[in-house]
Write a structure and sequence with these properties.
Layout (H helix, E strand, L loop, with lengths): L1 E5 L3 H13 L6 E5 L3 H10 L3 E3 L3 H7 L2 E4 L3 H11 L8 E4 L6 H7 L3 E6 L10 E6 L5 H12 L3 E4 L5 H30 L3 H20 L5 H8 L5 H13 L2 H17 L14
Helix pairs in contact: 7-8
Length: 278
């Protein structure tokens, strides 16, 4: 199987790295292109098994699965550019929400999929959101999800739910890291401990909580109740936290939804090939 990447920016290069780490070259060949040769050269220098390709057209001609990893504003022009080379037996996978499944199926003859990856795939962990096009059989859906299982936990969602789901799985690592950093820095300010010690304690605590939630069967409430003894120190701390954070994440989700809307939500009407032209 040969996987081709059109674009090796932040998310594209992360996916390339994840697949290289999780898969032997005898199982999967990886080819990639980037309009900035220097960026592509950095990837091939770090991962010699990745073959540099000059153009998106060559990626499509030579790949079984094509990952479109360009900026949202470039998605439609690139689709139009490679359209003459797309085969019916291919998978065309877009990693952003700029173009809907319906739009892609209106112009591309192949099977189409949308995914939203996360920075957590660097650690071969976290969630990849998956939305299958209508042409995929159950077996073909399983094949795509099995590929993504090498680097993450693929989770199928409805395209209409993409915004809020990606806030949790893809934007969430940044939101959580911000909160954890503030927690550590408060300990430095209030307790006078070194910042590296505070950060280490918070990082290792977070790892432990993650394992409780994902490996030991704990729910959020289980951890809260087990640690927060009535009348104890943790319970007093929670009394401070609850009014401070109540509604904060609602406001966050409203803001991200509004921002996404202004950037252009996926269109629901059918689009012809000419509508994808730049």
């Amino acid at each position: 199987m040969r996987i081709g990447f059109i674009g090796t920016g932040s998310m594209g290069s992360m996916l390339v790295r994840a697949f290289v780490q999780s898969t032997s070259s005898s199982e999967i060949e990886i080819i990639a292109c980037n309009r900035t040769p220097e960026k592509l050269a950095q990837i091939t220098a770090r991962h010699p098994q990745v073959e540099a390709v000059c153009t998106p057209e060559e990626i499509v001609r030579r790949s079984d699965i094509v990952f479109l990893c360009v900026k949202p504003g470039d998605a439609r022009p690139v689709i139009q550019q490679v359209l003459p080379y797309v085969r019916e037996d291919q998978y065309f996978v877009s990693i952003n929400s700029a173009v809907s499944l319906e739009e892609m199926e209106a112009v591309l003859p192949c099977r189409v999929v949308k995914i939203i990856p996360s920075i957590t795939q660097v650690a071969l962990s976290g969630v990849t959101l998956v939305m299958h096009g209508s042409r995929l059989t159950l077996e073909e859906r399983h094949d795509i999800e099995s590929l993504l299982e090498r680097i993450s936990k693929p989770t199928v969602v409805e395209e209409a739910d993409l915004r809020v789901c990606s806030d949790l799985s893809s934007c969430g690592p940044a939101f959580l890291a911000l909160l954890l950093r503030e927690f550590a820095m408060a300990a430095v300010r209030q307790g006078g401990i070194p910042s590296n010690l505070a950060e280490t304690l918070v990082k290792d605590m977070t790892l432990g909580v993650g394992k409780l939630l994902t490996q030991e069967g704990f729910e959020f409430e289980d951890i809260i109740h087990r640690v927060s003894v009535p009348g104890g120190i943790t319970a007093e701390g929670i009394k401070v936290l609850q009014p401070s954070i109540h509604g904060v994440f609602d406001q966050l989700l409203v803001t991200t939804r509004s921002k996404a809307h202004h950037h252009g939500a996926p269109k629901k009407e059918k689009v012809e090939a000419k509508d994808l032209e730049d």
